[in-house]
Design brief:
The complex is a heterodimer of chains A (345) and B (224). Chain A is an alpha+beta fold. Chain A has eleven helices and twelve strands. Chain A is globular. Chain B is globular. Classes of the chains: A alpha+beta (345), B mainly beta (224).
Chain lengths: 345, 224
């Protein structure tokens, strides 16, 4: 167990599924060879099959407090990296006689294949977006599964990383992670995953996915910082809750569950008596704590609507962008970044 | 098991599993057993293999030669599938290794123990002819010494794999490396990982407790 734990809260009521977080992460961390199919940050539409496809059925973690071996997702299940005819289109001199096309076998799945499908019947169809990164768990199944102790949980901040010098590419971690957030690099032959932007964190800069988010969805900071939003949302107001707590790994990414819009009744009038997003569905994702979370959100929202002062609503609105980052609010442009030297040769 | 001395051998022919230098050599068949699930170093692995067979390869035939400088082991086993590369996240390459105790009391089944190292000469199909020289002091502790001292060459044909793993008998002051000398007894073990069965790390077939190794002495000089 780490002395302190960095954490993230994502407010699902504000996520618009724009994937800016996904691209921010991709640009920063997963552009090397062998990383083409990796999305350390992904955003999927819920209800949906997610990334990798049907990951919630792949096992892992500690259901019933015992390790479940789980299975390793394939590249195809992750959505793989499609090859395109970029050269031909951009440099082939063919003008508008050609266009971008996927090369090789036509894919039947991708990392965001079921975007905006959701569920329900018109006019009460519904969906919301679920951004996911590594949960930097307090009880990381990946770390526990590795026979080589190649996965480390930083004692000072709780960030979970793969030590690529120790990793032999055995991939027990990929099977054990119940959130299926670990990838295998076929070129480097090691497991790779979200590093919670620790080189930025070390310099006081919030994670790229959080800083780049146009929707002000993501809060960052230490769990125990009572003056910062994470503590207030998770421990004080108890509206931010982990995804699939039953997996038993104690995630340190928390979600403010989506309230969703009101239903229409048969006459076409708004019906507030039952939620459009079935609460049972949200409970299947976030466990029974979702009931209290939604109730608190509704009550505080109502209070604010009536002109009252709500600390919770003010926090979630995030009037001051920098206040979301628990002190990790330094501008990355103010730092001279030095590219790490390759460990190869 | 005897390591025969052959003065006509050179390192190139020793390293070639198809070389005629290996023809007619005595082959010792070692029965292999699966590594016990209960000894695996993590709860997830123990849970995964509690009811699953470990050790797809059940025997290996071994012959060994030396030329006074280099010691070479030729392994041959039934290997229905040539798993030479990592095709997908859930596929694993074939692999094999020889192990030698560096410390008198080093337990083979645990790949050594703290303060009691084991030296392993490791080959993995996706590494081509790059051998790994490894030391370990317990399961999951293997540490790469170098990728230059251990030479490997393999061939796969019609469901059989032949592989030579060789190294100089003496490698100077390399902590964690076993040293050999003509006429000096030693001990060894073999491990084989069947990639198509997802075998990797401690999930392997191995030859049980250490096997004795008798290394032919060099003939007396000028003794004709």
């Amino acid at each position: 167990m780490a002395e302190r734990q960095l954490a993230m809260v994502m407010d699902l009521n504000k996520c618009i599924g724009c994937q800016t977080c996904t691209i921010a992460c991709k640009q920063l961390w997963t552009r090397d060879e062998g990383m083409e199919y990796m999305w350390w940050n992904s955003v999927n539409t819920q209800p949906g099959r997610g990334t990798p496809k049907d990951w919630e059925k792949m096992g892992g973690g500690f259901p019933n407090k015992k390790p479940d071996p789980g299975r390793i997702p394939t590249r195809a299940e992750f959505g793989d990296a499609w090859e395109y005819n970029h050269k031909e289109v951009f440099y082939g001199g063919k003008g508008d006689k050609t266009h971008l096309q996927i090369q090789g076998q036509k894919p039947d799945w991708g990392p965001n294949w079921d975007e905006d499908q959701g569920a329900g019947e018109y006019p009460n169809s519904y969906y919301f977006y679920l951004p996911r990164i590594c949960n930097h768990c307090t009880h990381p199944a990946c770390l526990e599964a590795c026979p080589r102790n190649a996965i480390e949980k930083n004692a000072e901040n709780g960030i979970v990383t793969v030590n690529e010098d120790s990793c032999r590419g055995y991939r027990f971690c990929m099977a054990a992670c119940p959130y299926k957030k670990i990838y295998f690099n076929q070129v480097a032959k090691v497991a790779q995953k979200c590093i919670f932007c620790f080189p930025r964190i070390e310099k006081g800069v919030a994670n790229a996915c959080a800083r780049q988010c146009p929707g002000r969805v993501r809060f960052v900071g230490y769990r125990d910082d009572q003056n910062a939003p994470i503590y207030k949302l998770v421990d004080k107001w108890k509206v931010a809750i982990p995804l699939h707590p039953e997996y038993g790994t104690e995630p340190n990414v928390f979600y403010v569950p989506p309230l969703g819009p009101a239903r229409f009744d048969e006459a076409g009038d708004l019906d507030e008596s039952t939620p459009r997003i079935p609460t049972e569905y949200l409970e299947s994702l976030f466990g029974p704590a979702v009931h209290d979370s939604l109730a608190i959100l509704k009550a505080e929202m109502e209070k604010a609507r009536e002109g009252g002062k709500s600390e919770l609503m003010d926090l979630l609105i995030a009037y001051k962008w920098k206040d979301m980052f628990g002190g990790f609010d330094r501008d990355p442009a103010s730092i001279e970044w030095v590219k790490a030297e390759s460990t190869e040769g | 098991m005897r390591v025969q001395y052959d003065p006509k051998a050179d390192s190139a022919s020793l390293l070639d599993p198809g070389s005629k230098i290996w023809n007619g050599r005595k082959r010792e068949v070692l029965e292999l057993m699966g590594a016990p699930a209960g000894l695996q170093p993590s709860g997830a692995i123990r849970a995964a293999y509690a009811d699953q067979k470990i050790g797809a390869v059940t025997s290996v035939s071994v012959s060994a030669l030396h030329d006074g400088e280099v010691i070479a082991f030729r392994l041959e086993w039934q290997d229905p599938s040539d798993d030479a590369s990592i095709g997908d996240n859930d596929s694993f390459p074939d692999a094999a290794a020889l192990a030698f105790p560096v410390h008198e009391q080093a337990p083979m089944i645990l790949m050594g123990a703290p303060g009691m190292p084991v030296n392993a000469w490791y080959w993995r199909a996706d590494d081509g002819e790059k051998g790994r020289h490894v030391t370990a002091e317990g399961l999951g502790t293997s540490r790469l010494l170098d990728e230059s001292l251990v030479k490997v060459r393999g061939q796969w044909k019609a469901g059989r794999r032949a592989l030579v793993i060789s190294r100089s008998m003496q490698v100077g002051d390399v902590p964690g490396a076993a040293q050999f000398a003509p006429g000096e007894p030693s001990r060894f073990g073999v491990a084989i990982w069947e990639g198509s069965h997802g075998e990797r790390a401690g999930i392997k077939a191995f030859s049980g407790n250490w096997k004795d190794l008798t290394i032919d002495a060099l003939p007396e000089k000028g003794g004709n």
